[in-house]
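Lecture 7 notes: from sequence to structure.

We start with a single chain of 541 residues. Read the sequence below before looking at the structure.
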Amino acid sequence: MKVSELFVTCLEAEGVEFIFGIPGEENLEFLNALSASDIKFILTRDERGAAFMANVYGRLSGRPGVCLSTLGPGATNLITGVADAVLDFSPLVAITAQVELSKIHKESHQYIDILSLFNPITKWNTRVTIPETLTEIVKKAFKVSRTEKKGPVHIELPEDVALKHTDARPLLPEEIVYPSPPQALLEKAAKLINDAGFPIIIAGNGIVRSGASEALRRFVSKSLIGVTTTFMGMGVIASEDESFISTVGLQSRDYVSCGFGMADLIITVGYDTVEFLPEYWNPEGNKTIIHIGTTGAEVDSHYSGLEVVGDINKSLDYLTDKITAPKDPSCYNTLRDLVICEDDFPETGYPLKPIRIIKALRDMLNDDDIVISDVGAHKIWLARFLRPSRENTVIISNGLSAMGISIPGAIAAKLLYPERKVIAVTGDGGLMMSLGELETAKRLGLDIVIIVYNDKGLGLIEWKERINYKREFFTRFGNPDWVKLAESFGFRGFRVERDDHPESILKDAFAGGGPVLIDCPVDYTENLRLTEVLGRIICPM
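Now the structure, written as tokens:
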């Protein structure tokens, strides 16, 4: 068979459901082969959107999402979404076309060195030159992508190689198994935990990637140790659980910081330093730390301790069995109560307070519904106040933190879980960066709801400007009529007016069917109020 046909057969063997991308002249041979496959090709309006879709698909499913582009400008458009996957540790396989091998050594139309561009943003990156090696390349790509820490890989397929013939056959994927940590390290960790008076857990996205949420919940149920989560670890313990304290990641001093200051042991589980640097919770570098992860701890002067490396489920189950007595919950309860008081913000007024929108949304969601956050000031409010009950129901990019991810991400989520409500929460800045994907959502008939925090500016950057420089500069812009624009794409459009109740509009949005966009004028002066509240905090414990 042709290399292009074998490539598709290999992808089928890996269980690929969707490929997100845009056709180009140099990948038509591959797409012709794909047209005979059960794999669904999702035509996007921009390659960056395709990479974001593959990225979020990977995070939600645990399996590599696949995105495709042509050479040159198509490949360069993929870069932001692929880079986002490398810092969010999302499994992803990017496939790009390339000119014939005979043209790579010289100046050629649309030729650039794609491998060099993708090298710093992928775990593995290669070109297919010999047809017989394709099966090994595809298997290795998926294996590397799925292995912790998960991330993106890239395969380049030159146009002439795609046309060649080979007798090779696909290699079957293998289960990735992580060993148990050494017994001696587990015993040391158990002793540290049992001896500690006031330990605190930082739970991260590695728990989600390892499917270890239930193991964490069993450990916490027996030990009663208080838990904080990173933005990408939200939901690994239910927010209504009495041991849950708060999300962390504001990079500002708050009552959670007081808890870290008091703690005599910090237990990190599936924690990625890219989300929340250790210097924020261990500023003196003197805390006793246990790192529980599938991979070793990042080298950091503020992050040195006992490393329990191996299968996170096995580590937590062992430590659960070794708990001799639960911790006194009173200090954790006090800390949780302080956080709740700290988060008491006004909800009335117009434009809408950020928290009003979130609370209205929270009341409409089932435990397994999915919220995809874009990047901006709204992300901070969502992470602080949405409070999910299950893991992988609030998807936040908190590594690269690329704007524009929410709408493509919502499309991927709805394709993967058509029975769930899927909501994209974005600012007006992020919306404009993925505007074309509104057409994709409509064409695919996806019932997604897009909530737009409309402040006519880059709210998060203005927030930082006003903190550091006491003024705003270069962040304000105009917006179209979002309702009319949404309707022009075939969406139903709503705008929350002064006398409207966002709860009623959300109810109508979910009840009516079809894609919906809700324009929510927002009062971001609350950002500075949050900063002021945190700035006045004195640890009372």
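The first strand starts at residue 18 and ends at 21. Keep this in mind for problem set 3.
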